[in-house]
Write a structure and sequence with these properties.
- Belongs to the citrate synthase family.
- InterPro entries: 2-MeCitrate/Citrate_synth_II, Citrate_synth-like_lrg_a-sub, Citrate_synth-like_sm_a-sub, Citrate_synthase, Citrate_synthase_AS, Citrate_synthase_bac-typ, Citrate_synthase_sf.
- The chain is mostly helical.
- It folds into 2 domains: 44-218 and 336-350, Citrate Synthase, domain 1 (Orthogonal Bundle); 225-321, Cytochrome p450-Terp, domain 2 (Orthogonal Bundle), CATH 1.10.230.
- It has helices at residues 37-43, 46-55, 61-73, 79-86, 94-107, 117-142, 156-165, 171-184, 191-201, 206-218, 225-236, 242-251, 271-285, 288-305, 312-322, 329-350; strands at residues 21-24, 29-32, 35-36.
- α1 (37-43) packs antiparallel against α8.
- The model has no long low-confidence stretch (mean pLDDT 97).
- It binds acetyl coenzyme *A (ACO) and oxaloacetate ion.
- The site of oxaloacetate ion (OAA) has 6 residues, from loops.
């Protein structure tokens, strides 16, 4: 019998169709429901992009107002949940805190197992509303500060920043942060989205799919790279060290975080927009030294390996300059990607087939047990 071809990492394997987003590496383009992500980032609020991902169309004024009202009603976490999260060891990674929060929200939802599209859209909205408070709680706890109460007079991004820092930063910083949320919101069948679809394909519930997706996003080959990028910048220290640092790292066969991509081989479509946002924040926050490291390492990496940065490369230093603690960078990615994941969960359910690939056995040949 001929050995079937093995597709390690499912590279290049097309497993389904999707109408949520399209990644085209040939033209370096990314569209959400048909709209170029750069145009969405420039002209639309994150709230509108969330609606687009969930419903397939941009919202009317009335639809947006209705969604915003529901979102504002679910911004604050139940007191028991806050207590449980603050009871986790201070050393817990914020991604673990976030994963636990989603799990608890699921366990407390009497409709957890209702997999209708309507029920899942309501759950998606509540998670999207609650996640900024979870991220902000961990950010503030790391600084010995108590959680704050959400502000209904603020938009999603402003409230996220207010909950994290106790004030709304200047509009340049808010805009850069919101740009990152729009760019991080969705990216077709990446590892975490695929994870959410695998879990959903067993007809499990949305919270289980999201907790699994958070686990997948945590790894440094996926979302965890935005934190690893900042650790790398700290090791490099100054732009003048970038070339030598890179030579040593490559000689030690290290993966350089924030570079390379499974799909984009000519550059990540989102990087130019996020690099501009990073430049804006750097200008507002005295981050010229960080910008210099950014450019020096990107040049050196291209010269050495021909590899381009991915979205995590500009996002990490931007979050640092905004004032976030490094371990909350990937949780921020979750707060944005919850929109894409949940759109995919409903899409999976609408035309479900259990996801269960095959493997070629490579272990011991059949043998007999010796115990009588
Ligand atoms: C939002 C996101 O999730 S974007 C991705 C974030 N992840 C990172 O930034 C982590 C660093 N990057 C990587 O590890 C990889 O580029 C991945 C995992 C993202 C993509 O990997 P793959 O599609 O499997 O590409 P693959 O690993 O086959 O890379 C091809 C070659 O480039 C090399 N390469 C790719 N990325 C890197 C990197 N960041 N540093 C050093 N070498 C790299 C590989 O070692 C490989 O070399 P080889 O052919 O000599 O063995
Ligand atoms: O698409 C991928 O493999 C990873 C990625 O960039 C994302 O999830 O945003």
């Amino acid at each position: 019998m001929p050995t079937p071809a093995i597709h390690k990492g499912l590279s290049g394997v097309v497993v389904d169709t999707t109408a949520v987003s399209m990644v085209d590496p040939d033209t370096n383009s990314l569209t959400y429901r048909g709209y170029p992500v750069q145009d969405l980032a420039a002209r639309y609020r994150f709230e509108e992009v969330a609606y687009l991902l969930w419903y397939g169309e941009l919202p009317s004024t009335a639809q947006l107002a209705e969604q915003n009202e529901a979102e504002r009603a679910h911004r604050d976490l139940p007191a028991e949940l806050v207590g449980t999260l603050l009871g986790l060891p201070p050393s817990a990674h914020p991604m673990d805190t976030l994963r636990t929060a989603v799990s608890i929200l699921g366990a407390n939802d009497p409709h957890e197992d209702d997999n209708s599209e309507k029920a899942n859209k309501a759950k998606a909205l509540r998670l999207y509303a609650a996640l900024p408070a979870v991220v902000a709680l961990t950010q503030r706890r790391r600084r010995g500060l108590p959680p704050l109460t959400a502000r209904d007079d603020l938009g999603y991004a402003e409230n996220f920043l207010y909950l994290s820092f106790g004030e709304v930063p200047d509009p340049v910083v808010v805009r850069a942060f919101e740009t990152s949320l729009v760019l991080y919101a969705e990216h077709s069948f990446n590892a975490s989205t695929f994870t959410s679809r695998v879990v959903t394909s067993t007809l499990s519930d949305l919270y289980s799919a999201v907790t699994a997706a958070i686990g997948a996003l945590k790894g440094p080959l996926h979302g965890g790279a935005n934190e690893a990028v900042m650790a790398m910048f700290e090791e490099i220290g100054a732009a003048s060290n970038a070339r030598a640092w890179l030579a040593d790292a490559l000689a030690a066969e290290r993966k350089i975080m924030g570079f390379g991509h499974r799909v984009y081989k000519k550059g990540d479509s989102r990087v130019p927009t996020m690099r501009d946002a990073l430049r804006e924040v750097a200008g507002a926050r005295g981050g010229e030294g960080i910008l210099d490291i950014y450019e020096a390492l990107a040049r050196a990496m291209y010269a050495e390996k021909g590899l381009h940065p991915n979205l995590d490369y500009p996002a990490g230093p931007a979050y640092h300059l905004i004032g976030f603690e490094v371990p909350v960078f990937t949780p921020i990615f979750v707060a944005a990607r919850i929109t894409g994941w949940t759109a995919h969960i409903n899409e999976q359910l609408a035309a479900n087939s259990l996801i269960r690939p095959s493997s070629t056995y490579a272990g011991e040949p059949r043998r007999e047990v010796t115990r009588a």
